[in-house]
Design a protein that fits this description.
The complex is a heterodimer of chains A (349) and B (296).
Chain A (H helix, E strand, L loop, with lengths): L19 H24 L8 H26 L7 H19 L8 H30 L5 H20 L19 H20 L1 H11 L1 H6 L4 H27 L9 H14 L4 H25 L10 H12 L20
Chain B lengths: L1 H31 L6 H18 L5 H24 L7 H23 L16 H7 L5 H23 L1 H11 L11 H26 L6 H16 L4 H21 L5 H15 L14
Helix pairs in contact in B: 1-6, 1-8, 1-9, 1-10, 2-3, 2-4, 2-8, 2-9, 3-8, 6-7, 6-8, 7-8, 9-10, 9-11, 10-11
The chains are: A mainly alpha (349), B mainly alpha (296).
């Protein structure tokens, strides 16, 4: 039952009040870097150093961190093995795409910056709400199951969601949804990322989040202490799904083209690889895992296409190998259950 | 009437392939409580080994080719267990499950890179003429290869049943399934029993892969889809139970064939997974599975 690494029992339980200052300094730092970076790239200045490709990679990293950190709620803190995260992402992406193209006026008809911000707010809120609703319903249905069966059921829902979208002609069916306006840029992703990490960090350090850890460590003991296990699990599901939906909404409006196939089992596996590479039950691990994995894949892509183009495809073998080697040698991932200082709550006090 | 009989044979053929895969899932789960997510890809690999042997060693008769392919795939299955799973036997369960996911993707991409992503068909080695008797008496058009696939699969399942229930190694396997910790104390070589389980499961999956490649087609990513379907079948029947895996496979194949024939082939996967979720909610341990007790 217990799946995630246990914290060191010798350490005292940390105080629930987070050390806010250091955290907000890091967040402000990220935003302070993101805005000029976006402006410089948009203006085409220093194009040899700041090329749009780097910004694109950073944007992907940002969206993936939101995905991985939200999955960490379920697989790391709650200790379940949920296998359907890309399904929630799909719900968010399609909701945002529908809202942006069918329900809202195009950004050109609105005031320049505020219009885009407004559209983003509405579409992302819609994406989060829709994904949260789906997550809540799936959570209701999966109450009865734990462990292996929960993995199967969540994976089943992922496949059903993808299959359902494929059969709805209104959203393009298997051909995909085209013509979504590019409302997302790196700054938008950075803002969402900072908010997500902030919310998740405070959540898992609150009594609300401690309940999840208690379920992971011993569900029966938690129940005896008065934890409503089913309700707490469903809350985790809903929240994780909402953030996956947020990432999906950003994704749709960044890529401008989505197909049901891009949210299938392979995407879920990719999220899992990054999660386990970084470490379970650690937000720092989620960040590190995504950054390390994405950079490694991009560096390999560039190196191989520069020096050995005939071997370029072989990088597909790297990601499963990383997963296997990590599991064989360091099952807790790179950071396993530890946090960077700026994400840690204040000790003692 | 005639189309119903034809559909019945279609369902039986698909169900036979599902059953050959599902047995491997079920046996491994029964023995070490591990969902081997790479098993669908072992099935795919078996199909490709069959293809390779048929194209390179085509002069060999089918009854030599098929056991050879099964043997080679069994070796791969045992090697994977030895390299990737054995070290994690006493680790947290999810670590092993994640490792199996990794092995699965590795095999898919490896075959894709070495053989290519195209869809292929294994050259037919089974007779493909229609079964005249069925055509004359029932008006149903059924080819001999379909019949052979169903019959050989059933024979393999019968052999498996005999091995598990009537031999020493089968007794050891059932004992390990019952209590993995006590059995080594009785002098049973646990590693050997687990290796044999993986070998049998992989060999059966290879047979399924060859049949599937003859009847339909194979591609490097087919293990995901079919593996999941077979896994669903094993869960529906009650994972860990041999009879359950076979029953679940034919049931799922029946549902699928009916869906394709009377509804839409696009809904196939959705309905298969919907059935799984529905069944798990009302029947959490499958049709033939034994409920596990939660101990405090």
């Amino acid at each position: 039952m217990s799946t995630a690494p246990r914290p060191d029992p010798a350490q005292p339980l940390p105080d629930t009040r987070p050390s806010r200052v250091r955290f907000w300094m890091v967040c402000a730092g990220v935003l302070a870097l993101a805005v000029p970076l976006q402006l410089l790239v948009d203006a085409g200045l220093f194009s040899d150093v700041l090329n749009p490709y780097y910004l694109h990679v950073l944007t992907i990293i940002g969206m993936n961190i939101i995905l991985v950190a939200s999955l960490n709620l379920l697989n790391g803190y709650l200790g379940e093995f949920a296998l359907g995260h890309a399904g929630f992402m799909a719900v968010g992406a399609y909701t945002a795409a529908l809202l942006a193209t069918r329900a809202l006026p195009p950004a050109s008809a609105l005031p320049p910056v505020l219009g885009t911000v407004g559209i983003l707010l509405v579409t992302l809120a819609g994406a989060m709400a829709a994904a949260a609703l789906v997550g809540y319903l799936i959570g209701l249905l999966t109450f009865k199951t734990v462990g292996d069966y929960l993995a199967i059921i969540t994976l089943g829902f992922n496949m059903i969601i993808v299959n359902a979208i494929q059969n709805i002609d209104f959203v393009g069916g298997p051909r995909g949804f085209t013509g979504i306006a590019k409302n997302t840029n790196f700054v938008a992703v950075a803002v969402c990322l900072v908010l997500t990490i902030g919310v998740l960090r405070n959540l898992v350090q609150s009594t609300f989040g401690r309940v999840w850890v208690s379920i992971r460590e011993n569900a029966i003991a938690a129940e005896l202490m008065g934890v409503a296990v089913a309700r707490a699990k469903n809350r985790a599901f809903t929240i994780a799904a909402a953030f996956a939906g947020l990432a999906g909404g950003l994704w749709a409006q960044n890529q401008q083209f989505i197909t049901p196939r891009s949210f299938d089992y392979m995407k879920t596996t990719e999220i899992l690889v990054m999660l386990y590479l970084g470490g379970m039950a650690s937000l720092s691990g989620s960040i590190l895992g995504v950054v390390a994995y994405t950079l490694l894949m991009e560096v390999l892509r560039n190196l191989l296409s520069a020096f050995a183009p005939q071997l370029a495809e072989w990088r597909m073998l790297i990601s499963p190998l990383i997963l296997i080697v990590i599991m064989l040698t360091r099952q807790t991932g790179l950071l396993g259950n530890r946090e960077w200082r700026w994400l840690r709550p204040r000790q003692g006090a | 009437m005639d189309t119903i009989i034809q559909q019945l044979f279609n369902a039986a053929q698909l169900g036979a392939v599902y059953a050959l895969i599902a047995l491997g899932y079920s046996m491994v789960y029964g023995i070490i409580r591990l969902i081997n997510f790479a098993h669908g890809d072992i099935f795919m690999l078996g199909g490709f080994i069959g293809l390779l042997l048929t194209t390179r060693l085509g002069w060999l008769p089918f009854w030599v080719l098929m056991p050879l392919a099964m043997l080679l795939t069994a070796l791969v299955g045992v090697a994977v267990e030895r390299v990737a799973y054995r070290r994690l036997r006493n680790a947290q369960r999810m670590s092993v499950v994640i490792t199996t996911l990794g092995v699965g993707i590795f095999l898919e991409n490896l075959v894709r890179l070495t053989v290519g992503p195209e869809t292929r068909q294994i050259p037919a080695r089974l007779p493909s003429g229609p079964v005249v008797w069925l055509q004359q008496h029932l008006g149903a058009f059924v080819t001999w290869d379909k019949l052979w696939i169903i019959l050989i699969s059933l024979a393999l399942m019968a052999v498996l049943w005999l091995v598990v229930n009537r031999t020493l190694i089968g007794t050891a396997m059932r004992a390990v399934a019952d209590n993995k910790d006590a059995v080594p104390l009785m002098g049973v070589n646990l590693n050997l029993v687990i290796a044999v389980t993986f070998a049998i499961g992989s060999a059966l999956a290879a047979a399924g892969g060859i049949f599937y490649g003859q009847a339909y087609s194979i591609d490097p990513y087919m293990g995901i889809d079919l593996g999941w379907k077979a896994f669903i079948a094993a869960v529906i029947g009650g994972i860990g139970s041999i009879e359950g895996a076979v029953l679940g496979s034919f049931l799922l194949a029946g549902v699928e064939v009916v869906t394709v024939a009377y509804l839409s082939s696009n809904l196939k996967n959705g309905i298969a997974f919907g059935l799984l979720i529905l069944l798990l909610l009302v029947w959490p341990w499958g049709i033939m599975g034994r409920p596990t007790l939660k101990k405090v």
